[in-house]
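Quick start: read one record
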Amino acid sequence: MLDALDALIRLVERLSRRLAGLAGVVLIGMVLLISLEIVMRRTIGHSPGLSFEYSGYVLGITASWSFAYALFHKAHIRIDAAYVRFSARGRLVLDLLALAAFTAFAVMAAQAAFGVLTETIARDSVSNTPLHTPMWIPQVLWAAGWLWFAFATLLLFVRVALAAVTGDAETVRRLAGSSTLDEQIEEEALNLKEQGS
């Protein structure tokens, strides 16, 4: 069972990496659109004004689809000044509590996002702009990103909880523990090596 769960986590991590990469491409596309509109305003005195509205949608959507990648790479902010002073068992408990709280947040955020989407669909809301964008379009993409993040967080929490129950402190540390400076340097060196080959 644990092997299947580990394989699923690796699959979700790989998909999260691809989704974060796609989010990066979309952000670059948005930057190009904004740049084009700036040039158009300076040269011909007019632009379609797409970037003003769509940049907000793009930011929300790309952020929600990148959260899972950040989770797997421990890129979310953690305050761990006291963490390093705890014993290995104390750190295990803190890692489990931190991931439980993070999971609760992710599930509540996904629930709230789908609440907003449901209300938007029920009201047939459109943006209050000249484009009159049907709001369900960006919101369904945004809410789906939150759902993916909640799924990834819940999956990781189940695996870490099982490791904690069986006393597998190394798995808890690897999946949910705060990275030390040495681990961060090693990971960055490995990333650079992979990019070079």
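Residues 31 and 167 are 48 Å apart (CA to CA).
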